[in-house]
Amino acid sequence: MKYIININFTKQNPLKRKLVNSLIGFLVAVFLAVQAKAQNQPNEAVLNQFENYRQTIIQEKIYLHTDKTFYLAGELCWFKIYNVDAVVHNPLDFSKLAYVEILDRNNHSVLQTKIALKNGDGNGSLQLPVTLISGRYKLRAYTNWMKNFSADYFFEKTLTIVNSKKPAEDTIVQSIKKYDLQFFPEGGNLVNNIESKVAVRMVDKNGKGINISGVIINDANDTILQFNTVKFGIGHFNLKPESGQTYRALVALPHAETVSEQLPEAYENGYVMQLTDHDADQLKVTVKAAGHDFDFNPVYLFAHTRNSIKLALSGKLEYGALDFLIAKDKLGEGITHFTLFDASNHPVCERLFFKYPEKQLQVMMETDSADYGVRNKVNINISVSDSNGELKKVKCQWLFI
Which is nearest to 97 in space by CA: 79, 113, 77, 73? Predict the structure, then answer.
């Protein structure tokens, strides 16, 4: 959209010039207001699709806690299950059964059970077989409805089981690599001629992070940059890929071992999204594009926290770039998904942002007595209030000693 104003200032008296200047100022103010409104105009199609999905698809979230994390083979593993709505975290009376299983290091199920759920609650136990070998096992819980979605939403927890008569054996399948080196471009993809932040993660065969140092080389085996991990085998570096080049990482490990891994392919056309702190109260989302003529094409930035819409903005790229400034207080606590859509409403970039909770719950526990005899009943009163002092509903139970 173009705005052209032709004004001839020749032979104008001062009064007329003053009126014209006032008119220009008014038109500029109107133009800026229209531009600001256009940038904040949400994409109705994306909002409607997301709202329809949120209202028609129920997303469950299961949490399971055990009486401990270390067991001897033959012991009972006691647990309790909570099934909640993934959006508001309130108890969800939807699924009536939960499936609980224990997986070995090869992800083979060694023990399974079904637990009845009532009003989102369930409890039970597993008798750990005396035939289990010593090692670390994975406790997994899910509902039948959750199998309609990715297994990433299943609850998982690590348990250690020791069997003095059956020591640990190296039964890990040969297909599992000794080391796993992964790269994650910010926003999702690398695009040629645009600098991107690339996260790096290095773990061993047990999933434990390894701190490393390495280099990135191109097709001519020239060193482009050096990188290292900071903590838990996690780090990052900035890379500006060039057309016609592919890149590979070389990492030197102790005992003269070397790990080589190819970086993700860079595209000729596409978008890159970067999220940074603009100041203490604002985030800056920078969008860049290369390849096609993306200038003045609209893009839409959409953000939600646990399927609760937090913002929907639009803007137009100028010279292949666009910035969004977002107030942090508009975002929900926890993980927020930022998704960028192109002019055709296709998702092209996504970024996660974590906001630390500001409202803390105050939990108070009080017993009805200070001294008890053996097998006496203990009555525990539990009260939970938020930061404003408002009491929350809690469940209390009788304990015996």
Answer: 113
Cα–Cα distance for residue pair 95/145, rounded to 1 Å: 7
**Model confidence pLDDT, tens digit, residues 98-116:** 999 999 988 899 999 999 9
Rounded CA-CA distance 291/239 in Å is 17
Q: Are 280 and 310 in contact (CB under 8 A)?
A: no
Q: What is the pLDDT of residues 324-373, one digit of tens each?
A: 999 999 998 889 999 999 888 889 999 999 998 877 778 888 888 888 88
Q: Give this prediction's pTM.
A: 0.68
**Phi, psi dihedrals of residue 259, rounded to the nearest 5°:** -115, 130
DSSP E strand stretches across 147-195: 155-162, 179-185, 190-191
The size of the chain, in residues, is 401
Burial class of residue 322, CB neighbours in 10 A (0-12, 13-18, 19+): buried
Q: Would you give the DSSP letter of residue 91?
A: B
